[in-house]
Amino acid sequence: MKSMNIHRFQGREGGAKTKFRPQFRRLYEIDRLIRDGEYPNYRTLSEKLGISRKTAQRDVELLRDGMQAPIGFDSGRRGFYYTNRTYALPALYLSAGDLFSIFIAEKALAAYENTPVYGHLVSVFDRLAKSLPESGKIWMNAAWLDQRFSFFHEPKTMIRSDVWDSMARGLRLCRTLLIDYKVPGYEKGMPRRVDPYHVAAYQGEWYLIGFCHYRKEILTFAVSRIRKAEMLEDERFDYPLDFDIKEFSGARFGIMWGGKNYRVRVWFSEAIAPYILEREWHPSQKIRKNGDGGIVMTFTANHLLEVMRWILSWGGGARVLAPKELAEAVKRELAEAAGRYTEEKHGGARK
Length: 351
Description:
Shape: elongated
Structural class: alpha+beta
Number of strands: 11
Order of helices and strands: HHHHEEHHHHEEEEEHEHEEHEH
Number of domains: 4
CATH topology of the largest domain: SH3 type barrels
Largest sheet: 5 strands, antiparallel
CATH architecture of the largest domain: Roll
Strand order of the largest sheet: 6-5-4-3-7
C-alpha cells in the first residue's frame, strides 16, 4: 500500500484534540468576525458569543499562540485584525498523536484491500492531506513506523468491483439484487433474488445478509462467491425496522448462526489453558479451573460448525464435554483425518 504524505497534516507537537472540541465553534466564529473586518475585542466577543471576557481572552490567545493565527490589535478601532489577510484557519486541527493514529489506521486498511472501499478510503486520506494548509507541518518518520508496526491480516478473498458496487447501491436504495451465487463443489451458479439488509466483514471475507426470495428466509452469502449482481431498479423493498444484526445473529460463534442455542462445554489442558485465558472468545463465556491444572470453558452458541473448527485447532489439548452432537462431530472429523494418514501409511493415498 502506498503510504500517504502524512507530514502534510497540521498540528502542534503535544497538542490534545479533546482540548479544542468545546471551543471549536467559538474559534471559527471569532475567526469569521476578524476576517469580516469587525475588529472584535474581548467585550464584543463576550456579548456576541455569550461567554465571559476571560473565556474570550483565552480563545483569542489560543488562536494566536496555539494555532499560529496572525492576530494584531488596532488601538484606533479597539479591536483585533489579521496582520496577514491571506490567513485561513485550518479546517482540522490535528496533534502529533492524531497523526500517529491516522497513520496506523491507514496501515490497518490493508485488511479491506479486496474491496473497492479500500481505494475510496485511501483517496479520502489523500484529499484530507491535500486540503490542509502547508504551514505548521508536523514531520513524522514514516519509515520508522513501518519498521515498528506490522499488521498480519487474514488471507483475503477476491471480490468483483461490479458486484460490490451493485450490492452497495442495493443496500443504500433498498432495491432487490439478482445475484449469481457459486456454492463450493458446484460448477453452475444459483440465481437468487435477495433483499440486502446488512454487510459484515469477518476473517478476510465479506458477507451479505439479506432476505432470500427463494428460501423465504434471511440468509448469509459470502460476497466472494457472488459472480454477478444486478440491482433491480423496479423492485424496492421495505427495510424491516425490527431487524437488528446483533439480535439476529444472537449467540453466534464466528460468522455463522442458526435458530437453536447450544450450551457448549470444553475442557482445555494445562498446557493450552494460558492461551485460552488470554482472550475473550465469546461474550457469554465462563471459565472454571479444574483440579488437573486445566480449565473448562462454557458458553452458548447457535451454530456448531465454527465451534468445531476452533476446537480442532487446539488438537489434543481440547475435549468437548457438551453438547453430545458436537462431541460426535469432532470424533468423526478426527477419525477421518487419522484415516487419511493410515491410508498413506499403507500406500492407499496418492500425492
